[in-house]
Amino acid sequence: MKTKLKDIIIIGAIVIIAASGFYMFNKVFKNTTFNRATVVQLNLDSGNYEKIVEVDFVNKEVVVIDNYIVNDITYPIIDESNNTITLLGLEQEGIRYEFVIKYNMDKRSMEVIEEESPKNYSSKVGEQTAQPIISVPNAIQIHFSNDGEIDIDDTI
To answer: Which of 18, 23, 121, 155 lies in the 20 to 30 Å Cα band around 1?
Structure first.
């Protein structure tokens, strides 16, 4: 009997510690805002992630760092009237789908509004202001920072 009671107490303590840690972690990042968001994408030729676009929330501008042409269309496509950035994801079953990110300068947020992947996790995450958005099937990542420097290797 004593062993079961001790086990229940230990499990209960672990659950309480884990729940409070999760709550504190989310509380810290929920109200955090950053000055910049950087969109990176895997370059299949080099095998490295490269910066494609930076969204500067302070100066309210979107800067294309690197572009690429597929079927006579230059990506990324920046639509300032709709506040969207359109990229081309990795090939899936012979097709490359567009990956659309919506940015909000006032909220300093990014949100994936259109993607094609097995579970569409990136678009289900919703609007983010601090936590990275990562689409593994499309090899696209969105990171938030204050100085523009990100360490992509530490993300996954």
So the answer is: 18
Q: What is the pTM of this model?
A: 0.74
What DSSP assignment string belongs to the chain? Answer: -HHHHHHHHHHHHHHHHHHHHHHHHHHHHHT---SEEEEEEEETTTTEEEEEEEEETTTTEEEE---EEETTEEESEEETTTTEEEEEEEEETTEEEEEEEEEETTTTEEEEEE--SSS-HHHHH--BSSS-EEETTTTEEEEEESSS---GGGT-
- pLDDT attached to residue 155: 47
- Measure the CA angle with vertex 89, ends 145 and 139; round to 5°: 50
In the structure encoding, which two tokens stand for residue 114, read together? Answer: 């259109």
- CA pair distance 13, 100, nearest whole angstrom: 43
Report the C-alpha gap between 119 and 101 in whole angstroms: 17
In the prediction, which pLDDT does 156 show? 44
Mean pLDDT, contiguous 10-residue spans, the chain (156 residues): 78 89 70 86 87 95 93 94 93 86 95 87 89 91 82 50
